[in-house]
Amino acid sequence: VQLVESGGGLVQAGGSLRLSCAASGGTFSHYAAGWFRQAPGAEREFVAALRWTGGTTSYADSVKGRFTISRDAAKNTVYLQMNSLKPEATAVYYCAAERLGLGSGTPSQYECWGQGPQVTVST
Fold this sequence. Notes:
The chain is mainly β. It is about 0% helix and about 50% strand. Strands 2, 4, 5, 6, 9, 10 and 11 form a seven-stranded mixed sheet that branches. The protein has a four-stranded antiparallel sheet with strand order 1-3-8-7, with no helix packed on it. It is globular. The chain starts with a strand and ends with a strand. The mean pLDDT is about 95.
């Protein structure tokens, strides 16, 4: 499956952005979807995941209550709604698909990755 992301950009601290991840060449219903981010000089870190079967979600502690992962099955698309953004959220954000469907927080468990739009949160 190929993943194409959109929705990155520049936002002021406290603002919101929504990232989209559209799948092609396959369906998200066969995978779990995850969002990760990577800041300059840092390792790629888990942000949120969604199990397609049952819709169970999980979040990193740093984003709980502010970020929401969701899906639109008809559009074969996963979203990441980011509210109350902080400057430390500045990173490249990656959408990923995991064939096991577990919604792991470990990047190496994911087989397919999007291109990674930049999100920049200014003070």
